[in-house]
Amino acid sequence: RIRTATLEPKKAPDTFVGTLRRYQEDGLGWLSHLESLQLGGILADDMGLGKTLQVLTWIQADHEGTTLVVCPVTLVDTWVRQAAEFTPGLRIRAFHGAARGSVAESAAGADVVVTTYGLLARDESLAQVQWHRVVLDEAQAIKNPDTRAARAARALTARHRLVVTGTPVENHLGDLWSLMAFAQPGLLPRRKQFATRYASGDPAEMARLRAVIAPF
């Protein structure tokens, strides 16, 4: 059992340039706790509350291996820019475009490699690296578990997995199943069983589901 009620907020490391708000310190403590238990999770703060900053601070506090960040192509520069501003000690590299080189070289020379969902779906070499952690930003991109990007995300190897999204359940519970299938494989029933069990919206079943996913 994961006792989230007793988690303590965590201060940013001294190498962080800036100030975290209290809820971001709470988030950092929670992320660190999950990682200490080798569990994945979903960081689902609303839009504009600084999820990227929380994740960069978390990486800054622990980057013994390379983190892969997968995001929409429009956010690649945002990750690189915010890392340079708030966590300048991190070596960050964008892996996309025709001149991207090899993923092995990028991973060997960086603390954070940022790539796109489009490239994740096309470049199988991303699955050949043993990542320290994988972060899926704007992870509604994998809400359909049958897409190439969603399948490629589940095929990635990492010690820790994190989903970052402001809309964990955008249309129906199938979105949640797809996110959890990446973040914490095996936690929820198989896809068809999940749909059958929760499609009716039975209050008792929904209460059980909330209890299962709440710590994550």
Tell me the series of helices and strands, N- to C-terminal: HEHEHEHEHEHEHHH
> What is the straight-line distance between the termini?
11 Å
Largest sheet features: 6 strands, parallel
Which structural class should the secondary elements be placed in? alpha/beta
Strand numbers in spatial order across the main sheet = 1-6-5-2-4-3
Rounded average pLDDT? 91
Q: Helical stretch count?
A: 9
Helix content: 40-55%
User: How large a portion of the residues is in β-strands, by DSSP E?
Assistant: 5-15%
Overall geometry:
globular
Short description:
The chain is an alpha/beta fold and 216 residues long.
Please, could you describe this protein's structure?
With 216 residues, this protein is an alpha/beta fold. It has helices spanning 22-36, 51-61, 76-86, 103-108, 117-122, 148-155, 173-183, 191-198, 203-213, and strands at residues 41-43, 67-71, 92-94, 112-116, 130-137, 157-164. The protein has a 6-stranded parallel sheet, sandwiched between helices. It is globular and about 50 Å long. The termini are close together.
